Each structure stands twice: as C-alpha cells, then as structure tokens.
Amino acid sequence: MKPKVLTVREFQGIKKDDLGEKNFALLEEFIEENSGDDVEERLSDFLRISSQKGFKVIKPQNYVGVINIDNKVQIEILPKIDISDENKLRNLFLKMLSCLKEFKGKSFKNAQINDSKLPIYEVFIQMYLNEVQELLKRGLKSDYLAIEGNLTFFKGKFLINQHLKNNIVRKDRFFMAYDEFHTNRPENRLIKTTLLKLNKISTNGRNQLLAKRLLAEFEMVGQSMNIDKDFSLVKKDRNSQAYQSLMIWSQIFLKNKSFSTFKGTKNVNALLFSMEKIFEAYVAKKLKIHFSEWNVETQKKDKYLFDNPKTFRLKPDIYMSKDGSSIVLDTKWKKLYQDKSKNYGINQADMYQMYAYAYKYDVENIILIYPKHNEISFKNDYTTYVQKRNNEYNLKRIVITVFLYDLQNEKDNLTILTDYLSEDLHKSK
Hints:
CATH topology of the domain at 291-428: Trna Endonuclease, Chain: A, domain 1
Largest sheet: 6 strands, mixed
Number of helices: 13
Strand content: 15-25%
CATH class of the domain at 291-428: Alpha Beta
Radius of gyration: 27 Å
CATH architecture of the domain at 291-428: 3-Layer(aba) Sandwich
Distance between the termini: 67 Å
Structural class: alpha+beta
Oligomer: single chain
C-alpha cells in the first residue's frame, strides 16, 4: 500500500484531520522525544505544537524535508517561497538542497529529476540509485579477505590443527588460510543491503525496477548481517572517496539517521534540513559562479570579537576579495515586511553582528542577504544603511546593504548586485 503524501510549506499548520488521529499522535510523540534538555536542537522549536481555532496544529518552521510516519504517511515540508506551482517549488527546493555539503556525490549534486511530481523521499531514493550506477561504471572496489577453507591444493597458510580435525580420512584435502581479492567488502555489503531495503519501501515503479537491476550487479556480494559492525569497518581513505556519499545515505536509509540532530523512532523518522543552511549554501554557490573573478570563501573563521583572550569567534557566511577590496556577506532566511518605521523587520542583533564584521575584518561593505517575496520590495532590490567617516571619533565609513535575493529571477537579480558593488567600491576609493 502506497503511503499518503501530505505536502505542506513552512509555517503551514498540520491538523489532526490531515494525518488521522493515530499518525498525529505518533508525530506529537516524536516531537516530544526530541525536545528534551539534552538535545542539541529542540525539535519543538521547528515543529511547534499550538492551537488554531480551538484545534491542535503542528507548524513546521525553518526546517524542511520529509517526515515518514509508520510507512503510512509521508509529510513533505517545502520552503515558503512565492511559487504557486508545487512541482516547480519542489524542483527549486531540490536544486537548493543539492548545494549542501551533505550532497557530495555527482548524482546527488546534479540529479536529473525525470518526474517533477515525484515525492521528495522518492527523489532521494532515485539520487541514491543513480549514485550506485555511477559507482558501478567506475567498478566496485575489492579488498583482500581472510578466508579459511578445505582445499584440494596448497594455498596460503596450512592450518594443521583444523586439518587434523577435518581431514583424518580425507587424504586429498588440505585446510588452508589465505587472502582473496574480492568485492565482498563492508561498503559493498551495505550498499547491497540498502538496495534491498529501497526495493521494498519504494512506491515508484522506475525506482523499484532500477533497484532490482542494480542488485544483479551485486550477486557476488553478501548482504550485511551486522550493519553497525560493517559501518565501523568502512574505510575512509583516498581510494574510498567514491563511497563517501553512498555511505552517508546508506546510514540514513538503514539506520533512520538524518543530517539533523533529531533521532528517529520505530514509527517515525525524519530527514530534515535547516533552511538557513540551505539558503546560505545556495547563495554561496551562485555567488562563486557569478563573481568568478573574485575569491569567494565560506564560513571564514580567523577573527574573534575579543583578542585577549581570543573568544567569540566571528564566522561570516561569505567573504569575497579581489584586488585589495573585500566584502563580507551574510545570509538570513527570514521574511522581511514592508514597514520602514520598523526597519522592515530586520533584527537589531543582526545589525550589531554586521558592525562587528566590518571592524574585525576591516571591510567597508557588508551585504545582508534576505529572500525576496511578495510582501517586501526595495528599489533595485536593496536598501543601504551608512555610517559616515568621522575622524574625530575614529569612525570609518561602513555601508551595510540589505539585499533581497530573488530565487525566481536570479540572473537579473545578481546583475543588480554586480552593478551596485561596482558603483559602491568605486565610491570608496
């Protein structure tokens, strides 16, 4: 039986009627189990249980992805972006998601989504299968395996005790220990075991067919009998780089792991991603492409708020430099609103943070990037806050620009940013 797929957006309430009483209760239990004081992040901060018109609702916020309830209901949580077409939104979301470091493999980063109507979980399965295909093109890695056996010839080390025990009446046999170069290594066993599981849980015919075809290529590989042990034996060296992404995703599918800190249960598992991190990674990638003549760094972390002792590390999302000029950029996944008297909803603490960046990184230009949406607009997609130079008080010129990133019209949007930076950098010289 195919699971019911419920698609919602950030901040959209999920009601009991949407899931059924039992599934709603399981989701509540999952939230409570991941909301204690001992967890790094409280799930209740991102899946909030509240009341709406007298009815209990669960509202997702800042985290997006998939929640699977008892293999009967899949909740797709998509970002709140002004795109009415659900399939277009899903494809944009997947494009943004592929910029995360967790999507290292070629197929994960450049997945060609053949069917935009595929549920997100099925897309993840498709990406995994495509990555296995890429691995097979390069060839499965083999390893020397220690084997003991009763042979008709000498090979390796003669085990005399086992020989006497097994071959008292078998004069034609020799009990030997030897190494054999074989594909039955832990990584391949885990992939095969994952393929077997995906073949069972996938509800998409094409994914099921591809999983079966790939399994035929693992005929000489055994199924993992101890998943935890095999994961502990996975090699992390240069020769195993082709397996890195597959091993991460095998853990997700086999052990209900996630990229978040939230732990799955027997009945509920979640594959959730922070929209703040997604937006940061996506914008950084686009800036690297668009500003190719600049050196673009992410998460630069060589400055501290205080020098003695070095405490409170400052880590701007993006740092751009070229020909002696430098710019700090920070992304914020937050909706601004059209009210200048309230500074459009810009957090005062964020401005203090930008101010600290300006002084510690000795830059004049700071760009604070927010997503553009229908409820906010600036002329040319930006507005500026300027501190003029004041020699008397040893204050330098600082320009903090609030820029609205247009996820639906990126080319023109980035051209505006380019023109603005060129003009402002010219002014500062």
